[in-house]
Amino acid sequence: MAAAQPLLEVRDLKVHFFTREGVVRAVDGVDYSVNRAETLGIVGESGSGKTVSSLAMLRLVPPPARTVAGQILFDGEDLLTRTPKQMAALRGRHISMIFQNPATSLNPIYSIGAQLTEILTWHEKASRRDAEARAIELLGLVGISDPATRLRQYPHELSGGMRQRIGIARALLCNPSLVLADEPTTALDVTIQAQILELLAELQARFRMSMVLVTHDMGVVARMATRITVMYAGRVCETADAATIFNAPQHPYTRALLESMPRIDHSYAGPARRVLPSIPGRPPNLLNPPSGCRFHDRCPEAQAECRCLLPVETAVAPGHTVSCLRRGSPGIAA
Amino acid sequence: MSALLEVEGLSKSYPVMERRLFRARQRTEIRAVDGVSFSIAAGQTLGLVGESGCGKTTTARAILNLVQPTEGMVRFQGDDIVPIFRQGDRARILAIRRSLQYVFQDPWLSLNPRWTIGETLREPLRVHRPEAPQTWATRVDELLRMVGLEPHHAWRYPHEFSGGQRQRVGIARALAVEPKLLILDEPVSSLDVSVRAQILNLLAELQDRLGLAYLYISHDLSSVRFISTHVAVMYLGKLVEIGEVDEIFSRPRHHYTRALMSAIPVPQPGAAQTRIALQGEVPSALRRPSGCPFHPRCAAALPVCAETEPMLSPPEAGHRTACHNPA
């Protein structure tokens, strides 16, 4: 059974922001796991807690936020009990991150080479020459032409797509077992996005690494993810393999989200064309989240019990968990 | 078909000084929009698509003379409005602006944070309907209801609203003076998915109710497919393909359009998507390739593509393409 143990397991994670106005429950009891060599897609709208929960894995939540509860088991060890020094040895080496905006995630005053080799000289005590050779190898791997010259260039000399390739190369330098990619293509144009997604999928298969892909784009997760976790207002609604999420979603939020997107492969011409099924209202303010199920005030299926009981994730099929009282989840008073 | 708005050969170029090592500084120009032509009839929506920097927004701004077009004609209800703007006859300019209104991309930046929503909505009335101030209050109520807000929202400030609500205010402001055509510049791009559908539905409903024409600018092809009756695709300042929405989406002929469409990830896992890989990135507008601007990245490029620039096929074709070797 040892092989079946997931690489990463997040249990009942809570990250709260202690602001002057009060406590914002950005992540409020989240569970998910990432198996070896798979891509877990985390989807949700802004404020659903998807980015904050992935930052928590690296223990990088910014103040005034604090991880207040939970466990993050990486290879069976709880990252939340590690010392800052142990975490520093882990970041970039075993778990690395690809950031959303390649323009701001590279340091503008250091050359590409300096930023890439630093990671190797720090983590692996590599010599400068070895580090450069490895950096050149990875730049070639992420499809950057003439890598030796690029090492001497600065971020402003490169286009957005190239910078993101460098961000990917940087994340892979130490052969990490887990890569967290936070909206890696949101800042890019669609044709460049397609190139980057293709590259990520290829590298992931090649190095058999695990990936957490955080995004709001259902198209991107459909293309990339093995399994998908849908988040809403700091909680997980539903987790299942990709095909199930798209073909047989159970949670009313997942269903509504999928239906509310216009489809490029669907014709809307003709007289009866244009009404998209939309979700009424808007995502809640987490300073004062709705009681009970976070989605109840926008949910078409909500009953009285949804207002007072917080649903707990339950399996409805092997590998498919849903937290909805209408789908048989037990509720806890909250 | 009588077009409400006709754009012909519209161009906007910006002079730039190019500095090169060991050479005198050279005056060149960036052609942000280069000879773009299209028309929009009442009640129709033209979706203008393309990647960042292709000239979509500059086209929209040149139509409204927010940037002065370098060349070309913009006919609105039959009159060429470029000379009217240039002459600066305020009464006539106001008359045009009443009919052509703009909804901005970012509802956080396009509303004055120090004005209540009511003040924001009264402003266009103050400019365009100064003769009847007693009607402003009822009109503001009416506008708020029209976009799905409540009359009491007029007393609130923008920071009290969510992105979706602010975009409703932006739409209400544009509708205040009863325009015939709205230019919508990425109106849903900054909104969350669940709110996007609400705004798209609102736009569709307002169009049917008021008979508006839209110029809908977006890089998001799925929302373009939903809202548009016609689609125009731009690349490096040029119009490369234009036609009816289902024509363009189901039978794209220009290789750039095909690549653009195949690049959109379909929300269906395992969908058999044959992506037409585009090599490299959009070249800088300063170093525009010779001939067809797309030829260095085009898989179907012929020798002629590097030499002669393809012209848009004649308007009778309905579905028009600027390509020597269309699919």
TrEMBL record, chain A:
<dbReference type="GO" id="GO:0005886">
    <property type="term" value="C:plasma membrane"/>
</dbReference>
<dbReference type="GO" id="GO:0055085">
    <property type="term" value="P:transmembrane transport"/>
</dbReference>
<dbReference type="InterPro" id="IPR017871">
    <property type="entry name" value="ABC_transporter-like_CS"/>
</dbReference>
<dbReference type="InterPro" id="IPR003593">
    <property type="entry name" value="AAA+_ATPase"/>
</dbReference>
<dbReference type="Pfam" id="PF00005">
    <property type="entry name" value="ABC_tran"/>
</dbReference>
<dbReference type="GO" id="GO:0016887">
    <property type="term" value="F:ATP hydrolysis activity"/>
</dbReference>
<dbReference type="InterPro" id="IPR013563">
    <property type="entry name" value="Oligopep_ABC_C"/>
</dbReference>
<feature type="domain" description="ABC transporter">
    <location>
        <begin position="10"/>
        <end position="258"/>
    </location>
</feature>
<dbReference type="InterPro" id="IPR027417">
    <property type="entry name" value="P-loop_NTPase"/>
</dbReference>
<keyword id="KW-0547">Nucleotide-binding</keyword>
<dbReference type="GO" id="GO:0015833">
    <property type="term" value="P:peptide transport"/>
</dbReference>
<keyword id="KW-0813">Transport</keyword>
<keyword id="KW-0067">ATP-binding</keyword>
<dbReference type="Pfam" id="PF08352">
    <property type="entry name" value="oligo_HPY"/>
</dbReference>
<dbReference type="GO" id="GO:0005524">
    <property type="term" value="F:ATP binding"/>
</dbReference>
<protein>
    <submittedName>
        <fullName>ABC transporter ATP-binding protein</fullName>
    </submittedName>
</protein>
<comment type="similarity">
    <text>Belongs to the ABC transporter superfamily.</text>
</comment>
<keyword id="KW-1003">Cell membrane</keyword>
<dbReference type="InterPro" id="IPR003439">
    <property type="entry name" value="ABC_transporter-like_ATP-bd"/>
</dbReference>
<keyword id="KW-0472">Membrane</keyword>
<dbReference type="InterPro" id="IPR050388">
    <property type="entry name" value="ABC_Ni/Peptide_Import"/>
</dbReference>
TrEMBL record, chain B:
<feature type="domain" description="ABC transporter">
    <location>
        <begin position="16"/>
        <end position="261"/>
    </location>
</feature>
<dbReference type="InterPro" id="IPR013563">
    <property type="entry name" value="Oligopep_ABC_C"/>
</dbReference>
<keyword id="KW-0813">Transport</keyword>
<comment type="similarity">
    <text>Belongs to the ABC transporter superfamily.</text>
</comment>
<dbReference type="Pfam" id="PF08352">
    <property type="entry name" value="oligo_HPY"/>
</dbReference>
<dbReference type="GO" id="GO:0015833">
    <property type="term" value="P:peptide transport"/>
</dbReference>
<dbReference type="InterPro" id="IPR003593">
    <property type="entry name" value="AAA+_ATPase"/>
</dbReference>
<keyword id="KW-0067">ATP-binding</keyword>
<protein>
    <submittedName>
        <fullName>ATP-binding cassette domain-containing protein</fullName>
    </submittedName>
</protein>
<dbReference type="GO" id="GO:0016887">
    <property type="term" value="F:ATP hydrolysis activity"/>
</dbReference>
<dbReference type="GO" id="GO:0005886">
    <property type="term" value="C:plasma membrane"/>
</dbReference>
<dbReference type="Pfam" id="PF00005">
    <property type="entry name" value="ABC_tran"/>
</dbReference>
<dbReference type="InterPro" id="IPR017871">
    <property type="entry name" value="ABC_transporter-like_CS"/>
</dbReference>
<dbReference type="GO" id="GO:0005524">
    <property type="term" value="F:ATP binding"/>
</dbReference>
<dbReference type="InterPro" id="IPR050319">
    <property type="entry name" value="ABC_transp_ATP-bind"/>
</dbReference>
<dbReference type="InterPro" id="IPR003439">
    <property type="entry name" value="ABC_transporter-like_ATP-bd"/>
</dbReference>
<keyword id="KW-0547">Nucleotide-binding</keyword>
<dbReference type="GO" id="GO:0055085">
    <property type="term" value="P:transmembrane transport"/>
</dbReference>
<dbReference type="InterPro" id="IPR027417">
    <property type="entry name" value="P-loop_NTPase"/>
</dbReference>
